[in-house]
# Entry
Amino acid sequence: MRRDIPPLAEVRRITEKKRDAWWTVLLVDPVATPLVRITAMRTKITPNQITWGAFLLGLASAAFFALGDWRWLIAGAIVYHLSFILDCMDGKVARLTGQGSVFGAWLDFVFDRVRVMVCGIALMAGQYQRTDDTVYIWLALAVVGLDTLRYINSLEIFKIRYSMRKQIKARVREARRAQNSSELAFMEDLLRNNPEADVEQDLRKAASVSSEGATETSPQETEDSRKQPRVIDLHQEFRHRFPVYLRARSFLLRHRIRTHLVSGIEFQMGVFIVGPLLDAVIEATIVSGGLLLVFELAIIYKLLLSTRDFTRTIDSFEREAVTEAA
# Structure
């Protein structure tokens, strides 16, 4: 069955995320995206079927890991990477063909967590049987625990950020009712939609749009300013404290790589691919877990600074309300 599928360049634009993990950008997308185009053009395979395929390959990888011998470790690492390629393909096929569903997203999430848990236990159990070293028991707990902690932390941070944005939007609606008809935009959304933008330039634009000038403005200038979106930057303090971050972020985003360089994806690849391939499971797991914790703590610190920006933003609304009332 042939479908009317666009050229590969257009498929990349539709299916590949504007920001993604460096492992995905460099080692997965170059393989997955052409396969997605072929799958969509010549088969009737659905995204959910691809999700099942990725999960079954993950179980096969776990079976290889459990055997413990270095040859099976290599086989397990290769199969795990194939499983991850399929795992990336299901969402791409869904975006390309419009077959995505809420249940499919749930299935993908649950299978990912089960795959990490099963592979982590199987890998460490195989090495424990091979060496009789109890450190592998603790590493199994660490792998499952870190993966769980990462998703709990990610969910809670998302909830807090959503709450802050919701409160700010509510204040803007109140301002509109008070004859201030400016639209609202968040800096992180602008940068996400335009990853090639220069961050420092965007900040200057945001400052010029949202600044409260001390000079008098004409009625026409006031009306024009109201037509422009009011840009809220909840990461302003973080950027001011770490100017090097701006340059690094701009460079990485031009290559579609997000600044969270060691996320759950890189953690998994370190444990289930790098470690087995090098027959250095203990070392790879410890280094990957340590780097994951460092980046998770950096995200928490960034959230702390973001809450301060949120407080300042809310205070600015209060001052504006008092000024307009006067």
